[in-house]
UniProtKB/TrEMBL annotation:
Species this chain originates from: Intrasporangium calvum (strain ATCC 23552 / DSM 43043 / JCM 3097 / NBRC 12989 / NCIMB 10167 / NRRL B-3866 / 7 KIP)
The name this protein goes by in its record: Propeptide PepSY amd peptidase M4
């Protein structure tokens, strides 16, 4: 006869240790999941240094998202931004030959890599043009950095629509990390004017990268992207949210090499 036959074990009680152990395991699993969620989400919107913090934030530090440094999501002190290079998503810009998400959370892949290296601005422009063609978008400004290529995509009306990255290792094209993923609203109804965006960018640079200054500005749906220069030489770029004025420096490109407009 077994316990299942209704007879209690000696002492009149069933052995509940397996049930208790299972319960503890479930509690630990839930706690681990909660801690992982907190780590991925980074600082809350109301915390200093969060991605939604305005330039007046006491710390003056932009959220840089997924990064090689500062854990999986980086958080306010991350240095490489979404994906970094050679981190979660492979290749300098991490797009590899992956799926629609370009790795775990790399953003939309417009064109999967074909395994052929992209070493010139002309090649990067061709890949971006091929990626944008189904949506009737054309490649505009192209920049080459040590980590890969940045390309502006324009609509039929000539207005900039979004920004993409071309992975030099594979030729894959994906939405640029940061503002292009998070802030592109699809409409140009932001509260900030171009001049106000310039001023927000200049104030942030003065506090965080004093050697750089505002060079040029381009309006995208929901945000502005600004090229920065030092001593008249192009250095990098940042974006300003058209609604909140938050500033997001593009830390993932590496050093500037060259650029060419359409």
């Amino acid at each position: 006869m077994t316990l299942n036959d209704g007879v209690e074990p000696p002492g009149g009680r069933r052995d509940r240790r397996p049930v208790v152990a299972l319960g503890l395991a479930l509690v630990l699993l839930v706690a681990s999941a909660a801690m992982a969620a907190v780590g991925m989400l980074g600082p809350a919107p109301w915390q200093s240094g969060s991605p939604w913090a305005a330039p007046g934030d006491a710390r003056g530090v932009p959220f840089t998202g997924f990064g090689q440094y500062g854990g999986m999501m980086g958080g306010p002190d991350a240095h490489l931004g979404w994906g970094g290079y050679g981190g979660m998503m492979g290749g300098p810009y991490g797009s590899g030959t992956g799926s629609d998400m370009g790795g775990m959370m790399g953003g939309h892949v417009w064109l999967a890599g074909d395994g052929r290296r992209v070493d010139s601005i002309a090649q990067a422009r061709a890949r971006a043009a091929q990626a944008g063609a189904p949506k009737e978008l054309e490649a505009g400004e192209v920049m080459q950095f040590t980590n890969g290529f940045y390309v502006e995509l324009k609509g039929a009306d000539g207005d900039p629509t979004t920004e993409v990255l071309v992975d030099p290792a594979s030729g894959a094209v994906q939405t640029e990390y940061g503002p292009a993923m998070m802030w592109n609203t699809g409409t140009r109804t932001g509260a900030l004017t171009e001049q106000q965006a310039r001023e927000a960018a200049a104030a942030w640079l003065s506090s965080n990268r004093s050697s750089e200054s505002v060079k040029s500005i381009t309006a995208y749906p929901g945000y502005f992207t600004i090229d920065t220069a030092a001593g008249g030489t192009m250095v990098g770029m940042l974006s300003v949210n058209a609604t909140t004025g938050a500033v997001w420096y593009h830390t993932w490109h590496g050093a500037f090499i060259a650029m060419e407009d359409a």
